[in-house]
Amino acid sequence: MPDRADDVERAHGGEHAALTDLSRWLAAASYLFCVCLFVMYEVRQNRRDDFVRFHARQGFVLCFAEVVFLVISFILDASVGTIPVLGAIIMITFKLLFGLLSVGLSVWGFVEALSGERWELPLLAGWAKRVPLG
């Protein structure tokens, strides 16, 4: 029975033929919060795998966006969060929406990378292409 990797290879004309399990797992690990920094270090030092580079860039941009939203969350919590009832409702909604979006994008990217697909992050793919990986 053919597995997902065989289907991917056939669908892309052998483009993913050189993907190893290590490449897929490194690419998938790029979507774990701060692990992307270690993957980027590994890519810069030892690997010339375009598939891993693609996902390392996206994982880094996603991690950076998560840190930015975390800082925004702290600022909002210190300002808007001090309003007795409305502030709590706004902060709970903001943190819930951001948390679900962040986890959803990370899981989606993890699964796509592990299956051997090049999936572009919505809204962040343009910035990911600008990340330099010497």
Textual characterization of the structure:
With 134 residues, this protein is mostly helical. The longest helix has 30 residues, at 50-79. The model is unreliable at 5-14 (pLDDT under 50). Helix 2 runs antiparallel to helix 5, helix 3 packs antiparallel against helix 4 (50-79) and helix 4 (50-79) runs antiparallel to helix 5. The protein has helices at residues 4-11, 21-29, 35-45, 50-79, 86-114, 125-128. It has one domain. It contains 6 helices and no strands. The chain is 68% helix and 0% strand.
- Helix count equals 6
- Point out poorly predicted stretches: 5-14
Outline type:
elongated
Mean pLDDT: 84
Secondary structure layout plus pairing:
Layout: H1 4-11, H2 21-29, H3 35-45, H4 50-79, H5 86-114, H6 125-128
